[in-house]
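pasting for ref
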Amino acid sequence: MTAASWSHAGEAGATGSITASLSGAMDTSAASLISAQAGALNLSASSLTHAGRAAGGTDLRLVLAGGLEAARGSLLLARNGTLDVSAGSWVNYGQAGAGGSLAARLTGDLYTDAASLLVAQGGGLTLTARNWTHAGEAAAFGNFSATLSGTLATLSGGTVTAHAGDLLLSAGALSHRGAVSAGRNATLSAGGSFETQAGSSVAVRSGLLTLNAGTWLHTGELKLSAGLDATVAGAFTTTAGSLMASQDGTLGVKAAVIHHDGRISSGGNISLQSERELRTTQTSMLTTSAGDISLAAGEPLSIWADWAPGAMPCCVLWVMPITGHSGRAAGHAFCPGRRPDQCQYDSDRRKPDHRRPCRRPGGGRRRQ
């Protein structure tokens, strides 16, 4: 069908494919239906205001010069194929799904409401846009990739899930208050600020989390299976009440400045490396059950360390100046199961020496 515009309130169906090419706008009412039972549904228009149901038996393709507005209760469905959306912007209060993969390429912004759903049941989900504000549910049973030139903001209640695949989220700035999870590896990148806010969660079930950011403020929860590799160009800050936990692997952060006031726990190693300043507070915690804790900074350190009984047989915490910077190397050991005065302490060693006898007298908390 070719027309200037289409206002649709009834039913349009075909056993094969349906193609509608409009030079102007299209709108559908809540009671409307467009269905290509065994073929593809192809719609092109200047814009689409959608309140009804549109389904392709295989693929559903939308090509819009302007915006797509999908009302609550609306449906966009590619039953056994790909849902492909190309538009200027997309405001979604409804449901959009595919039996295969889902792809959305927007030149403007994407808004997904708390009632909205984006799902790729048989493949990957790929999004490109300027900004994405997300309060609903977005999920792929394959890989999930979202690339934003501006800001990605996940609101409270918003979920982003790669059930059995890798997750890639990349934006100019990232503000996270929802829940993000990956079945395998996850990569989170923000050219500017990255905030994992209170109430937020990031879960990686069987792979590594790689994180790159200009700055990182962490007040939420990270729950990982195989460690963290984070590189922060500016400051990395954890606040009281925050949690970073990994079952295995190295939980490592490199940053220009590190201020730690939360809880960091790993079944493997923990490594915090600062180009300049590194500070931990009296309320902060660093614990490992089967590895070493290493701290490094280019300036004198301000460290409070707590003796944590039951964490492991003997965990050595050590710090040293970064090559090319001045600073005093210092070390501290947590030796649960022993008295604090039996813990090893070496003040100017380049690396921990598990063979040296414990020799620092005094309590299990010390500030350097």
